[in-house]
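During the reporting period the student researcher (J.K.) took over the structure-prediction task from the postdoctoral fellow and processed the backlog of single-chain submissions. One of the processed entries is reproduced below for the supervisory committee.
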Amino acid sequence: MAKKKFNLHLKGYVGGWDFDSDYVDYILKKNDGQEVNVLIDSLGGSVATALSISSAFRNHGNVNVHYVGMNASAATIASLGAKHVSIDASAMYLVHKCSNFVFKYGQLNADELQTLIDECEKQKNDLQKIDLNIASMYAGKCKKNKDELLDLMKVGGWLTAKEALEWGFVDEITDNPEDVAPAIDDATVSALASAGIPIPNIEPKDKEGFFAKFLASLSALFANNNSSSTKIITAMNKTFKFVCALLQVEALTSNDGNIILSDEQMQAVEDRIAALETQNSDLNNQIKDKDSQIENLKKKPADDSHSVVDDGKKDENFADDYVNSLNNAREMFNSIP
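J.K. obtained the following structure tokens:
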């Protein structure tokens, strides 16, 4: 079988130099009225770029997309405007809900906290609209209800080529000898973790790399525990803003819902809780003192109102004092030469 010729190779970050919408427009215009074959191998990136490329494919009208490797997020959106979509038998496919990077910590007053809440609420509403729009696009391709696609996006799990075909994301599974099977290395793991994408169960490319050693240690652990079945570990970075601020880290790695802290990190958490307990006790004592003072003030009798206006002088002496003062003033004036 002759090796298929591709007019476009879109790889890496969607929106980067090798997955650029302007270059896609250039190639499509150059091949106006002709069939264009596109190879995609990407973990995703900019949704805006993916939507632009999808629209460009649709407007051209004669674009075939072929997936190899691992493809996720925006990379799956880009092909929705293609006439035909195929996937290599060993490739993988993932759709998930959109996300924004959120990292906020520190002391905030009530007004600043409300501003942050308003900003987060706006981001939430925007993301929900984007998710609904993308789910509708997926539903149009898959010929399914958009609610089904929203549920799948919420799960955000990797699909095999067969599962992608069953859902309707692709139209054909191929087994071309030139297609390279997806492989996991440390750089890929880092990219997946930073994007909050789960790690698929794939044989590591670098058997001496950190991730390969990590998987090997897990396998040994399961073997030592005589486990009857092997559990796939999916790592994902979680941002718990107050805990991360306390530990002075950007994110914590969650493995299937479990987060492991070092002894030093646990001690930092313990010290902070102890400090908060002390502060709470001090505040309670201050509140009790203030309550006691208030109760004592309530028991003390109030001053009589006449003491406010009565200066102790008799009204009948007022005229005599005035006359004496006036006479003294006149005598002083007359004594001046």
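The committee noted the following: The two ends are 134 Å apart (CA to CA).
J.K. will present the remaining backlog at the next meeting.
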